Amino acid sequence: MLLPKTHALICVLILLAITATSPAHAVEKLGFTVVEQHKDLQIRRYPAHLLASVIVKGEFAEVGSEAFRPLFRFISGDNQQQQKIAMTAPVLQRPASDGTGDAEPQSAKQWVVSFVMPKTFNRNSLPDPDAKAITVTEEPETLMATIEYRGGWSRERYESYYRQLLGQLEETSYQPCGSPRWARHDPPMMPWFLRKNEILLPVCSG
Fold first, then answer.
1. Which of 46, 87, 111, 174 has the most C-beta neighbours closer than 10 Å?
2. pLDDT in tens, 33-81
3. End-to-end alpha carbon distance in the chain
4. Longest C-alpha distance within the chain, in Å?
5. What is the DSSP letter of 80?
6. β-strand 196-205 against 181-184: which pairing, if any?
7. Tens-digit pLDDT profile for residues 122-162
8. Rounded CA separation 71/77 (Å)
């Protein structure tokens, strides 16, 4: 039999999960088309889209919180047009290049954390950020190998699924051609065991 405090905690967690996933709190998602399915791996085609990004130095699981603040201020109106921008999902994180090519997550010390901009904006209509640390880039249409997993945001968990992605990718006709992106779809208030995460790796057909 559950103790009263345990029962209450479970009720709170369930309520948070329902609230975070309800239609009233729905956010725009980065769209894609599934090209191919292989075991747990999907090959997806992502359309061109805009990213607002900051570069943060630190540990894998911690830089997202530091990057969130300037990015959230930007979409909350801290821009030259003082215009609010809707929050979207996922939040993307990738290793920052050291200038010698695409960086790998195992050795990265700096990370690019990005908010996807709503598809109603183009490069000309998107407000210009006030903060110099924020850069806006237009990402081209990209073919991605992706794998989805649920659970916490640890680096160990990420690297385990990244290795799984690479192993399954070897069984296809596609080759990696870029740095992986870590995609977080849920806010920190979501119970860790319900969080949806993905790894997106740019690929080229062999």
1. 111
2. 999 999 999 999 999 999 999 999 998 988 998 999 999 999 999 999 9
3. 57
4. 60
5. T
6. antiparallel
7. 999 999 999 999 999 999 999 999 999 999 999 999 999 99
8. 10
